[in-house]
Write a structure and sequence with these properties.
This protein is mainly alpha-helical and 620 residues long. The protein has 32 helices and 14 strands. A two-stranded antiparallel sheet has the order 1-2.
Length: 620
């Protein structure tokens, strides 16, 4: 079943990505700006577009539910999870270097930084602008901001390629993008390795001794202690220095770490599929802990609960403290009516299921395990298989042996696809053939099994191709017979498939003689929905006259030749011979053993007798 198990709120975030950027640019918002409730309402009224205030806050401004509810009393920071991609940083950096004629290693004052910052709109805060664009740390920015005479060195970590005037700007961006992508991938790998090996998560606290141990194993050859603390463990500049100089005992890691939507979806999909989780399953804290240990990576418990299992912060606290024994999970997955209908059609197509068919609970479980994915059992029964809820509960408890699927209360107009599917199921399950004669008793049995929701007249005429005037006759007298499947058609491809299946069986060869008893056996095994005449003429190449002769003389065992009027073309013979030569690497006047010849003959799947096969393909 192809649909996303992503949280519906995250799906909305993807859909609103462009509009969110337009809002940021138009309203000149910055990462970590602080707004009050009045400003929030102004933004909501302009960009809310039918969203609830809570959803707007989360989707457009990165306000958690807790942030939103406290916003009326306290101001809040916004755009805490805004992505800053490498392309964006590269563009701003190029603009600043070009328009201000800057060079690597130059020193600037706080006033000059302000001038640069205000010359172009960027969603970066002033501190992020200094750090990401000018390579000035937050500590250095604070110093020159406090002392206006002080200056900071810029572009200490910026690649030299930015300052090469002979290289076009696009080429610079391409090269930097490549280098940055490689560097970011390496950083991500180290972070994930540290998280997995050391069982660390976002928001965990580590001591200096723990930091030293981690640094020695994962970072000593690549980073200084300070750079490792900042780049890999996400520790702020000031706290990194204090930890390294042992001024503080422990520090929180990855405090501002955020996972992008794709990463969250990957963890979520893996957890759901691997653990066979369903919408609105119940989960204990012990079960949560097992999943958290297995799949969370560097996510904190709260993030894993909310982003992966749809457990709210309040709900998780109650679960963890034992205030509630269970929590409902996966309550934020939307399954559209289109998806439900698609599943219905897949089941009807693949599983010989039709409206009104009776199934047992074991048969239900087979369908559920194969097609339900995240859908809860009761919802799969009601929404997908259209089973009455009360009847399903009785079925599950064993109070009834079977119940109907795709249940309908009254006559319903079937579409052409459903009619065709039902017709094929009836033909296959009952081994019906074109032109068969059935009694009124057999018709009643077929109708009772498959005709749910149809009138008998509709079933007889539309499904079995009975002539309308014959239906009342066989209904009045169960011993009366009538011809069925008068309008059934067989395509050239179907004839070819049936013929190929029979030929590959190697049951008979050209010139074999068979009686009617043998014909009947072959017909029952290979004839499918073909009439006897079609099977005789199209598959065995027996004329209608010869078929009548062996049928009329069944007691005497009269025989007729099969493939008697079959004429194999020169093209067929040439193709067969070429295939054999190529497959077995044969060459002119090659000597082969009887055993090798038998192998070639068996694998050729031909209807030639062995002697004729040798004559046609191996004569010198």
């Amino acid at each position: 079943m192809e649909f996303s198990v992503e949280r519906s709120i995250n799906t909305k975030k993807r859909q609103a990505k462009v509009l969110r950027q337009e809002m940021i640019k138009k309203e000149k918002l910055h990462i970590h700006d602080i707004i009050d409730y009045q400003q929030f309402l102004e933004l909501y009224n302009q960009y809310g577009q039918g969203l609830s205030k809570e959803d707007f806050g989360e989707i457009y401004l990165d306000l958690s539910r807790g942030d939103y509810y406290s916003l009326k009393k306290n101001r809040c920071r916004i755009l805490k999870n805004e992505e800053i991609d490498d392309e964006y940083i590269c563009f701003i950096k190029q603009y600043v270097i070009k328009n201000f004629g800057l060079e690597k290693g130059k020193t600037v004052s706080y006033e000059e930084i302000q001038q640069m910052y205000q010359s172009i709109f960027t969603k970066l805060s002033e501190a992020l602008f200094a750090e990401k664009i000018l390579d000035i740390s937050s500590h250095s920015l604070s110093c020159i901001k406090y002392d206006k005479t002080d200056r900071a060195t810029i572009f200490t970590s910026t690649d030299d390629i930015y300052f090469r005037k002979e290289i076009p700007e696009k080429a610079i961006r391409k090269e930097i993008r490549k280098k940055t992508r490689e560097a970011n991938h390496a950083i991500k790998e180290i972070k994930n390795t540290v998280a997995e090996d050391r069982k660390l998560h976002i928001g965990d606290k580590i001591s200096y001794s723990q930091f030293q141990e981690i640094y020695e194993i994962y970072g000593k050859e690549l980073y200084t202690e300070y750079d490792f603390a900042k780049t890999i463990l996400g520790i702020s500049e000031g706290k990194a220095k204090n930890l390294i100089h042992k001024k503080i005992e422990e520090v929180e890691i990855w405090k501002n770490e955020t996972l992008d939507l794709d990463s969250l979806l990957e963890i979520r999909e893996n957890t759901i599929k691997s653990e066979n989780l369903h919408i609105k399953d119940e989960m204990t804290y012990e079960q949560f802990q097992r999943l958290y240990e297995k799949y969370a990576g560097k996510l904190s418990e709260e993030m894993f609960a909310e982003e992966i299992l749809d457990i709210s912060r309040v709900g998780f606290k109650n679960l963890k403290k034992g205030k509630s024994p269970n929590s409902i999970i996966l309550s934020d997955i939307d399954i559209s009516e289109e998806i439900k209908e698609k599943v219905c059609q897949e089941i009807k197509k693949n599983e010989h299921i039709y409206k009104g068919k009776r199934i047992s609970y074991e048969e239900f479980l087979y369908l559920y395990r194969k097609y339900a994915f995240v859908i809860k059992e009761i919802d799969f029964a009601e929404k997908i298989l259209k089973i009455n809820v009360t009847q399903f509960r009785e079925l599950k408890k064993g109070k009834c042996k079977t119940t109907r699927v795709f249940n309908i209360d009254e006559f319903e107009v079937y579409n052409e696809l459903e009619l065709k599917q039902l017709r094929n199921i009836i033909i296959k399950e009952n081994r019906l053939h074109m032109g068969d004669s059935i009694s009124g008793q057999k018709f009643q049995r077929l109708y009772d099994t498959y005709g749910f929701g149809m009138s008998k007249e509709f079933f007889g005429e539309k499904i079995l191709d009975m002539k309308p005037y014959r239906i009342p006759v066989i209904l009045a007298d169960s011993n009366e017979n009538t011809i069925i499947l008068l309008n059934e058609k067989v395509s050239k491809d179907e004839f070819k498939r049936i013929r190929t299946r029979f030929l590959k069986s190697r049951e008979h060869c050209i010139g074999d003689m068979i009686n009617y008893k043998e014909f009947t056996r072959l017909y029952q095994q290979y004839g499918e929905k073909l009439s006897e005449v079609q099977f005789a003429e199209k598959i065995l190449f027996i004329t209608n006259e010869n078929l009548k002769a062996i049928r009329q003389n069944v007691k005497t065992g009269r025989e007729t030749a099969i493939f008697g009027n079959l004429r194999l073309s020169d093209a067929y013979m040439a193709k067969l011979k070429a295939r054999i030569i190529k497959k077995y690497a044969l060459y002119f006047r090659q000597n082969i053993t009887p055993e090798f010849f038998d192998k070639i003959y068996q694998e050729a799947n031909t209807i030639f007798l062995k002697a004729d096969f040798a004559k046609k393909n191996f004569r010198s």
